[in-house]
Amino acid sequence: MAEKPYHVLFLCTGNSARSILAEAILNHLGAGKFKGFSAGSLPKGKVHPFALDLLANMNHPTAELRSKNWEEFSGPDAVPLDFVFTLCDSAASEVCPVWPGRPVTAHWGLPDPAAVTGRESVRRTAFADTYRMLSTRIGIFTNLPVRSLDKLSLQRRLDEIGNTPVEVSKEEA
Predict the structure, then answer these.
(1) What is the mean pLDDT of residues 72-77?
(2) pTM for the predicted model, two decimal places
(3) Which element (helix H / strand E) includes 8?
C-alpha cells in the first residue's frame, strides 16, 4: 500500500511568483511523495505572467496554478498540512492562521522576482534565479529521510535548507 504524500504549503504575501514557482517545482520533484500548494495573506489574484512563462518553458503544468488566500488551507475542512514554508519576510512576520495537521514550519526567504525593475531580460532573469534557488532547496528537502527523522532533527534540517546561500545573477538593469 502506498503511503500518503506529505502536504506542503508555500506562503508569500502576494502568491503570484515565489510560492507559485515552489508549488510547481515541488509537485514535479516530489513525484508523488509530496503534494505542493501555495497561498498568500494578501493574494494578488493572478499569477505573474513571467512565472507562468518560465514554468511552461520548464515543462511544468500551469493550468491549475492560481493565486489564492491562505484561508483556504486553515479551518477544520482544510487539507492537513505536514510542512509550511514562508518564502518572503513579510509573510514570515505575519500572524498565520492555525494550520490543520500541526505542520513543521520553516522560513526560506528569497528575494521577490516580481519586485525587480528594469529591462524585461533583467526581470526574467530574476524569475529564473528564483526558480533555480527554489529548485535547489526543494531538491534537498525532497531527498531528506523525512520518515526517519525526529521532529527536532527535521526542524534543524529545514532551517539549514532555508539558510542555504543564494546567488543572484549579476546582469545589469
Answers:
(1) 87
(2) 0.92
(3) strand 6-11
5 is catalytic: no
Q: Clarify whether 153 is annotated catalytic.
A: no
pLDDT band at 67 (very low <50, low <70, confident <90, very high): very high
In order of 34, 71, 105, 133, 157, the CA distances from 162 in angstroms are 18, 24, 11, 10, 9
Tell me the angle at which helices 18-29 and 49-57 cross, rounded to the nearest 10 degrees: 20
96 catalytically annotated: yes
Q: Which is catalytic among the residues 12, 51, 78, 154?
A: 12
Instruction: Catalytic residue, from 21, 25, 78, 88: name it.
Output: 88
Q: What does the pLDDT look like over 92-147, one tens digit per residue?
A: 566 677 787 789 999 999 999 999 999 999 999 999 999 999 999 999 999 999 98
Considering the candidates 96, 122, 149, 168, report the single residue annotated as catalytic.
96
Nearest to 108 by CA among 127, 134, 126: 134
Strands 6-11 and 83-86 come out as: parallel
The model's pLDDT over 6-45, given as tens digits with 9 standing for 90+, comes to 999 999 999 999 999 999 999 999 988 999 999 999 999 9
Give all domains of the chain, ordered by start, each with its CATH number.
Answer: 6-162 (3.40.50.2300)
